Amino acid sequence: MKDGFVKVAAATPGIHVAEPMYNAEQIAELMVDALKKEVSLLVFPELCLTGYTCGDLFLQDVLLENAKEALAFLLKKSKGYDMLTVVGMPLTIQSKLYNAAVFFQNGTILGAVPKSVIPTYSEFYEGRHFTSGEGLETTILLCGQEVPFGTKQLFVCREEERLCIAAEVCEDLWSAIPPSSFHAQAGATVIVNLSASNETTGKAAYRKELVKHQSARLFSAYIYADAGEGESTTDVVYAGHNMIAETGILLAESERFTTGVCVTEIDLQRICNERRRVTPFAEQRPEGYQIRYFSLPVKMTKLTRTFEAMPFVPSCMTEREKRCEEITRIQAESLKKRLLHTGLKSAVVGVSGGLDSTLALLVTCQAFELAGLDKKNIHTITMPCFGTTDRTYRNALTLAKELGTTVKEIPIAESVRKHFADIGHAEDVHDLTYENAQARERTQVLMDYSSMVGGLVVGTGDLSELVLGWATYNGDHMSMYGVNGSVPKTLVRYLVAYFAEETENSTLAEVLRDILDTPVSPELLPPSGDGQIAQKTEDLVGPYELHDFFLYYVLRFGFAPKKIFRLAAETFAGTYEKETIYHWLEVFYKRFFSQQFKRSCLPDGPKVGSVAVSPRGDLRMPSDAMASAWLANLREIKF
After folding, report:
1. Which residue pairs from 388-394 have beta carbons closer than 8 angstroms and sit at least 24 positions apart in sequence?
2. Is 46 a catalytic residue?
């Protein structure tokens, strides 16, 4: 349970209809299998002790008594088990029959939750046998134990209170307002659903979306255990379609028409941090819920789930293309609106032959097309200086010309030298002043040139640079509108590649691909002896794929450094040594805190994804906050 991870499972046993003891033996075997996999929460299907398809046999005392005996057998088998197990069975209470989920652990029944929505349509006729448990809250005697019985129950782990479990049964999820909606508002972070959902053409896809969407709406984990092998096929077939979802993401799914245990880990920190971030979630808390406590050992959960190395970039090519199209359209539409609002018909973009300025120019061209403006009114300015290489210079000029913009070359070396003389700085001292003077001169040129042509200076800096503060204050840090401000560096690369694939201009495609192959650099230091880029950004601040991974989990979920290090070490194993990851994570936190003053006065720009750092939107952070607590947490790491 450390770092909020809990191993959970949904299981489908092979059963015999109306033979509870046999079914209990099959369930017991899967319980042992789950224990070997270190599962803490195991969920079985609806009415799995008897079989869902018993029909009118549910009216027979023999079946109902045998089901209780089967439960007693499982209670005995569970002694010594910390694992919390949930099984489905029929229960008679005051001459009424209920379809219930029974929670037990280490020989003790914690509670039983009845089904609320009883389907009586098409192939379903549960109303013939079962009564809705909605609104019922009582205590029953089951296997010699006094057991709470009702829908408003929360099962909470003493050692990890974020593990708060509630149950619904099959049709409850398919109703207009599922009981889990109220459970989540009452505090449940994990919803278990004991189900017997039969197979018809297309139903599996709908069922999957239902589970994913409910987990997304509730900011919860959702464990769906489905009936399968052994259920009667008199009229329908059951496939054991088990699923585990978390906040809209399907973490695990069983093959249909199989039995066994479907296992993964849920992240309680992620769930709770999402809920904390989205404040309206808990504005209305339903009343009447009772808490049942249980205990689990605190241990390091071995992770089997994976984490995307580039969380901002979809791994699926089709989805990636859709995402690229959507993001560039958001960028272009936002710039179009700013142009139309200001009445400006010109834009000024400084191009360097690097990725960020390339994306900014491509987006600006798209905005002009959407606004019906002549792209000749896009003034692309290249400003070669001490660090400019022939490769980037040629690429900048070719790019601007092929896009049909007006190209202007303004060398700034002499202006910078004059500035050095004015302030008494030696040109051969390649320090921060040497670099910043060039960056600020370029910004001055762009701003003043925009005044001449009545244009808007379009900023090029991306999200990764802003988070790290890798920008010169009032230099490339400043513009009149920043289209890339919420696009991380790893995604910038794919957006430029998307334009290269989409364009029918072979020359443009070629130059875009060469820009993609060019090392990321501000080009503020003289080239090496062979004319190549000497100043490579990732050598100085670290690999952007690591920093984008860090910033995603820092800003999107608020995870602690130790947890982020753990995720990064798992994700980048074989690519980076743990010592390397630790080093750059420490650099990340130091820069993130010390450079907030640059983010506190960012120009306007569109939010395109779930992470942004606008001081007017997603990141209201003081410029003088201390990083000491985060660095202390990081230094607790042992490896």
Report:
1. 388/352, 388/523, 388/527, 389/523, 389/527, 389/531, 389/532, 389/533, 390/531, 391/353, 391/514, 391/518, 391/533, 392/352, 392/353, 392/354, 392/518, 392/523, 392/533, 393/353, 394/353
2. yes
One-letter amino acid of 384:
P
Instruction: Tell me which of 164, 170, 272, 385 is the catalytic residue.
Output: 170
User: Side chain identity at 264, as an amino acid letter?
Assistant: T
Residue range 548-600, pLDDT digits in tens: 999 999 999 999 999 999 999 999 999 999 999 999 999 999 999 999 999 99
Catalytic: which of 7, 19, 46, 441?
46
Burial class (CB in 10 A: 0-12, 13-18, 19+), 573: exposed
Domains identified in the chain and CATH numbers: 2-294 (3.60.110.10), 317-634 (3.40.50.620)
Q: The whole model's pTM is what?
A: 0.94
- In this prediction, residues 610-625 reach a mean pLDDT of 95
The two tokens of residue 600 are: 């506190």
Residues 313, 323: Cα–Cα separation, whole Å? 8
pLDDT tens-digit series, residues 340-398: 999 999 999 999 999 999 999 999 999 999 999 999 999 999 999 999 999 999 999 99
Strand runs (DSSP E) across 94-197, as ranges?
96-105, 108-114, 120-121, 124-125, 137-142, 145-150, 153-157, 164-169, 190-195
Catalytic residue, from 7, 48, 54, 115: name it. 115
Pick from 308, 214, 306, 212: nearest CA to 265: 306
Separation of alpha carbons 191 and 211, rounded Å: 10
- Does residue 115 carry a catalytic annotation? yes
d(CA 280, CA 267): 21
* 3-state DSSP of 6-23: EEEEEEECCCCCCCHHHH
The residue whose two tokens read 């607590």 is: 629
36 is catalytic: no
Residues in the chain: 639
Q: How far is CA 612 from the centre of its chain?
A: 14
Instruction: Read off φ and ψ for residue 38, nearest 5 degrees.
Output: 65, 35
